[in-house]
Structure of L-serine ammonia-lyase:
Amino acid sequence: MVYQTPLLKHEFGHQSKSPTIYVKYESLQPSRSFKFRGISHFIERAISSKPILVDTMKVYSSSGGNAGLAAATAAKSFGMECIVVVPKTTKLRMIQKIEKEGATVLVHGENWGHADTYLRETIMKEAKLKGLTPLYVHPFDNELIWEGHSSIVDEVLLQLKQENIPSENLAGIVCSVGGGGLFSGIVKGLERHGLAESVPIIAVETEGSDVMAKSLRAGERVELNKISTVASSLGSPYLAEFAYQSARKYGSKSVVLSDWEVVSTTLKFADEFNIITEPACGASLHLGYYPDIVATSLERNLTPKDIIVVIACGGSCMSYEELLSFKPAGMV
């Protein structure tokens, strides 16, 4: 089911005084993103808690992004049917990927909110009337999903130990943040290992989708009226309550980048490592190339003894040509 993904040391062209950067490759999960961890765990727990209803269970998702693909992939692995409602803005390439996993895709609404409401208020209600047991998979805001994502931390600590690196050397974990699902999973994992107080999380967002940064500045959760970023996978109008409270409790660091910063990093990473990721993943990778941002965020000097783990969250719906199309006009 869930793969133990590689944790690889990367130089990123740094000088010898920079921290040691490791990248966790979640693009190698079955659905090509970290989303598979939490969603497959969620479905597995639903099956084990209500085995008598398994024959009537059907998976329902409203994401036209990586969560929808993860729901379809996980449902297929459990031999379950899956319906995914996506908004009209969903890329044809992603619809085809979801359908390839055996899911039924319905297109409805102008945005995720419209698609989600239609799924819950119409499609799932009709399913109940037919005697089915709808299993609703939220893209990010569910404790079981965070529990599944938390296995990333288990793996990171094990893999560092296998390289004789003590957990005390782990100076920080960098992750991209949209609605806070991955962030919440990392918090859960650190808490389980007693490291939440000592290992800071650096949350990276893009301008136009920086709901965590705005919430932390406001001292309360805010909701974005408009999402405007090329990193569409980070485009959540709100932040999960647990993510917000955890960021405040543990003093998580917030970094906000421009669209061009993440796109240029994603292109550079593709050129150097022959791996194409989405801009949402490029947001975290950007700090691998620019460790000074990490040091500034942590308010301390970093040395090669300090380990910074960058979670390359993945994503499978981007081409090199599309990344190039994001270049500002006139830029070579």
